[in-house]
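## retry 2 of 3
previous attempt timed out at serialization; input unchanged, resubmitting
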Amino acid sequence: MKKEIDVLDFKEAIIFLKNDAILGSYIKSISVPKYSIETDYFSSLCKYIIYQQLSIQSAAKTHARFLLLFDNLNPIRLLNTDEEILKQAGLSYRKIEYLKELSKSFINNDNFQKLSKKTDDQIIQILTSVKGIGSWTAEMFLIFTMQRMDVFSSKDIGLLNALKIVFDLDSRPSFLDAELLSERWMPYRTIASLYLWKIIEGEDFDW
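## retry succeeded, writing output
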């Protein structure tokens, strides 16, 4: 189930970012990003496993085909779905393995039901203990499911390319440099990220 989010609700964040010497001019000239929160933890993690290392456009198509396989996506149904059926949706065998491991984790572990009470770092630690979930997937979960406001995914290629543009760098920053550069936008790095994705993906882009 999805819940639509209006970035304009975060007035303090937008005012803060508009006054930033680096990002402010961009925020004043491009449209406000739109996004939605995926309230189902399992479905959300499936989505961002599928999105790993793919372009957003390609991943969105594969994810749409994946969802058509299920009238009710849940860990037991996914675990019992034949690999070849999942392969026909465009998933690699490695991602199918990761999705099956995620299903097993949800079936056997109740930690996932308590995530809302955890800190960002605790959530990342819990999620990355599952095979196939790395920091990027966990950070997307924090942004688009947990609605945490101060998340910056320093390994996201789109964000790295956007940093190169807004900071007028000669090359894409390293993961460590990206993390350091993003600190100027704390505690609203999630909202900054939404603008950065829009800068690099185009005016019409929204998650």
